[in-house]
Every structure is written in C-alpha cells, then in structure tokens.
Amino acid sequence: MTTTETAKALTIAGSDSGGGAGIQADLKTFQELGVYGMSVLTAATAQNTLGVQGVFPLTAEAVARQLDSIGQDLTPDAVKTGMLFSADIIEAAADRIAHYGWRNLVIDPVMVAKGGAPLLKGDAVVTLIRNLLPHALIITPNLPEAEILTGMKLFKAQDIREAARRIHAMGPDMVIMKGGHAGGDLARDLLYDGTAFTVFESPRIHTMATHGTGCTYSAAITAGLAKGLTTTGAVRVAKDFIQAAIEDSLGIGSGHGPTNHFAYRRRRSQNGGELT
Ligand SMILES: Nc1ncnc2c1ncn2[C@@H]1O[C@H](COP(=O)(O)OP(=O)(O)OP(=O)(O)O)[C@@H](O)[C@H]1O
Ligand SMILES: Cc1ncc(CO)c(N)n1
C-alpha cells in the first residue's frame, strides 16, 4: 500500500446471521480500524447467540468466482480466512490466493462454533494443513483447534509451546496460540515466529459475551497488517481491540452475546487518541 491509498482487507469466511462472528465481525472490525473491507462468502449460517441452527455452504465454484472478481480488480493489502467448511472450498481458496500472489495471509482455523456446531468438516483438516498453511503469514488457533492440528492434548505450558513449534513446521511464518479457552486470571496469547515466543496478555473478563472473539481478533490483526503495521504492532492493537470489545459488552441476545466492535474506537476518541 502507498501512503495515498486506502488500506484494503479481504475476509474469506462464513456469514453469521446474528452478526457477532464470521464475515459480519470481520467487516465491522475492518471498518472500525479504518480499513476498507471486502468479503468472499463461503457459507451462510443460520445462527444467533443461542447457537447454530443451520449451515448452508456455497459451492467451491462460487467461492472461486468471488475470489476472481476481487483478484481481477482489487488487490487486498491483507487477507484472512475464517470458516471454510469443506476441502473443496479450501482448495479453491488456496489456489486463488497463490494465483494472485496475495501476501499478509492470516488464517483463523475455524473448526467448531462455541456451542459445539461443526464449521469445518473433519476430512478437511488435512487439506487445510496441506494446501493453505504453507501460504500463511500467521495462523491463530485456539487451544481445541491446536489440539486437532497437532493431535496433542494441551494442558501444560510446555506442551502449548511444543504445539506452536509443530504448527509452525506446517508452513506459516508465525503462530499465535490463543488463550481464550485456557483457565486462569489472564487471557494469554503466545506468538511464535520460529525463533522466539512473545506473550500478549490481558485480564480475563468473566462474561458470557464472547461470541466471535476469535474472528474479531484475527480480523483486527489483518487490518493492522493491511495498514502496514509490523506483526507485533498488529497483534498489540488487536489485543487491545478485543479486550475493549469484550469489556464493554452490548447485552444483546439471551445466549453467548456478541462483542462490542465500537468499543475500541470510542475509547480512543474519548482519550483523544489517534487510531493506530
Ligand atoms: N474472557 C476473556 N477475557 C479476555 N480476553 C479473552 C477472553 N476470551 C477470549 N479472549 C481473547 O480473545 C481472543 C480470541 O481468543 P479465543 O480463544 O476466544 O478465540 P476463539 O475460541 O477462536 O473464538 P470464537 O471461536 O468465538 O471466534 C484472544 O486474544 C483471547 O486471549
Ligand atoms: C460463520 C462463523 N464463523 C466463525 C465462527 C466462530 O466463532 C462462527 N460462530 N460462525
């Protein structure tokens, strides 16, 4: 991106009709961080704060055509993937990402919704590893996803570090092991760049309103990369963004409510700060 251009980010993900996760969370986050958002839809989900009531995937052809429409006219400065659902959609996405040479790829390896509904078919995990991970700048697994990727059980800190090393060996330049699912007073994320570990942590908030935290966090990282931040800078902003979004919850719905995508920008403007 040159300084005169608007930063553009693309999300390749599923729709959450409830608006808290998926494409909707990604586009809201891009917008809040001052980045022009584009979207390639992989599936519609019938979903609310109570759970997932239905999953309706698009064909791989429909995904490939959307990617071509972007690639033939609009070059994203950063790209993220979320719910990809099936092996053939992953193949189409990996093929088009490689074809257009898109950089700054963030993979959120979405597998299961918080209520337990599968968002990735079991037989697609191997395709995700083989076809998509080698193109990634960053992958952001939560602990259950990291367990599926590595076949390990992740209870101890040293095992989480070993899992990060193994996922790094699958191809991404960097791995962020997210700590939302771990216990303890801190929500601690671990960034591994193939050499060293960097810890990003914040006080854990006790709330039901954590629907879409992973989507929002990886979208905020993607927005930062699109604007030309370093990886560490993008993760730092994303951590502040998700912390504010969980803290200032909206009280929407009667189940696991969405996070507050306005919160980070509101706080920045109240403090007289510029957006980073
Ligand atoms: N209760 C919490 N308090 C503070 N931070 C949290 C909390 N839960 C999650 N986070 C942070 O939110 C980000 C996303 O992590 P998480 O592990 O929840 O992702 P996820 O399980 O993929 O989310 P989802 O599947 O709902 O999209 C991480 O930075 C994590 O540390
Ligand atoms: C569409 C969609 N993508 C991702 C998630 C994971 O939070 C979800 N619940 N729904």
TrEMBL record:
Highest taxon of the lineage: Bacteria
Pathway: Cofactor biosynthesis; thiamine diphosphate biosynthesis; 4-amino-2-methyl-5-diphosphomethylpyrimidine from 5-amino-1-(5-phospho-D-ribosyl)imidazole: step 2/3; Cofactor biosynthesis; thiamine diphosphate biosynthesis; 4-amino-2-methyl-5-diphosphomethylpyrimidine from 5-amino-1-(5-phospho-D-ribosyl)imidazole: step 3/3
Gene3D superfamilies the UniProt entry points to: 3.40.1190.20
InterPro entries per the UniProt record, alphabetical: HMP/HMP-P_kinase_dom (IPR004399), PM/HMP-P_kinase-1 (IPR013749), Ribokinase-like (IPR029056)
GO molecular-function terms, A-Z: hydroxymethylpyrimidine kinase activity; phosphomethylpyrimidine kinase activity
Enzyme class, first EC level, given as a word: transferase
Keyword Kinase set for record: yes
Entry EC no(s): 2.7.1.49, 2.7.4.7
Keyword Transferase on entry: yes
SUPFAM superfamilies, sorted: Ribokinase-like
Keywords assigned: Kinase, Thiamine biosynthesis, Transferase
Region of interest: Disordered: 257-276
Catalytic activity: 4-amino-5-hydroxymethyl-2-methylpyrimidine + ATP = 4-amino-2-methyl-5-(phosphooxymethyl)pyrimidine + ADP + H(+); 4-amino-2-methyl-5-(phosphooxymethyl)pyrimidine + ATP = 4-amino-2-methyl-5-(diphosphooxymethyl)pyrimidine + ADP
Residues annotated as domain Pyridoxamine kinase/Phosphomethylpyrimidine kinase: 16-260
UniProt record similarity statement: Belongs to the ThiD family.
PANTHER family assigned to the protein according to its UniProt record, in alphabetical order: HYDROXYMETHYLPYRIMIDINE_PHOSPHOMETHYLPYRIMIDINE KINASE THI20-RELATED, PHOSPHOMETHYLPYRIMIDINE KINASE
Protein name stated in the entry: Hydroxymethylpyrimidine/phosphomethylpyrimidine kinase
